[in-house]
Design a protein that fits this description.
By secondary structure, this protein is α/β, with parallel strands linked by helices. The chain has one domain: Rossmann fold. Helices cover 49% and strands 11% of the residues. It is built from seven helices and five strands. The chain has a five-stranded parallel sheet with strand order 2-3-1-4-5, sandwiched between helices. The longest helix has 19 residues. It starts with 12 loop residues before the first strand and ends with a helix. This is Nicotinate-nucleotide adenylyltransferase.
Length: 189
Amino acid sequence: MEKELEQQQSSCVKIVLFGPESTGKTTLSKQLSKHYNTVWVAEYAREYLQAKWNVKQKTCELEDIMPIAIGQMKLENNLAKKANAVLICDTDLLETKVYSEMFYNGICNSTLKKKALENTYDLYFLTYIDIPWISDDIRDRPNERETMFSAFENELIAAKRPYILLKGSKEERFKIAVEAIDKLLENKK
């Protein structure tokens, strides 16, 4: 299982959109991938959990966490091979770790914890909760946005990950993100 959670090496700049549900991560991931003419790694959990909901009308359970983590890394590793200079990730294993611990009373698989901290990215964009909540079959914590946001930010701090807080409109977030990514690309030359 540990091998399935390993991040393959890549020369591209790796960016992660990170934060609570319904904070604009997917929207920004798509905008950035279009802007940089590259691929983006979708959140595997959405596909996995929507399929589960469609069949069983059940949301995420503890036994779903590891299949989600494995699916996420497989997707990321496959798309990293297709990326140009930038890979945009709608999530990562660190986010899966936060969700596991927040939803299941601090429980997180030890291999997932280890790999979430070993895998590396150039920059995280922490998305703030200042955009409207949009309900769907999978989202289930509209009243806990502040608590969830704090958990995500605390995780980035504890893991010593470089991050930029994104607030404001889609346009403001996009502008800040592009400036930061352009700077990383310039420094990589």
